[in-house]
Amino acid sequence: MTTPDSQHNNYQGMPHPQFQQHPQFQYVAPMSPMHPAYARSDKSRLVAILLAFFIGGLGAHRFYVGKIGTGILWLFTLGWLGIGVIVDIILIAAGSFKDSDGRRVLDWSPES
To answer: Sign (positive/negative) of CA torsion 47, 31, 23, 3?
Structure first.
């Protein structure tokens, strides 16, 4: 007897054959550096954290990483009265802050 789960066990880590027929779909292994969850931003974490610390209430760090919409929101709300800025500083320091393309801002050195 085959169940839907047992049909996919033969492919362990490989794309299902039906997806190989479509060249517009590119398979990226989940732990690959090319996977969007592990992509690195070209923005500097040092610049982002300094902008957030000194003028975070104006949304400068969000404008820097390309998040224009939330940068404007931070500008008009003073970084949600400072709470959002504190959260962003923690996220940047922890390496969890992402740019507008969803890539994590990880590198401390300035972009070259």
So the answer is: negative
Q: How far is CA 21 from the centre of its chain?
A: 30
Q: What is the CA radius of gyration of the chain?
A: 20
Which spans in 4-111 are helix H? 4-8, 17-20, 45-55, 60-64, 68-81, 83-94
Distance CA 77, CA 75 (A): 6
Q: Which residues of the chain have pLDDT under 70?
A: 1-38, 111-112
Category of 38 on φ-ψ map: left (φ > 0), alpha (ψ -120 to 50) or beta:
alpha
Q: What is the pTM of this model?
A: 0.67
Residues belonging to the chain: 112
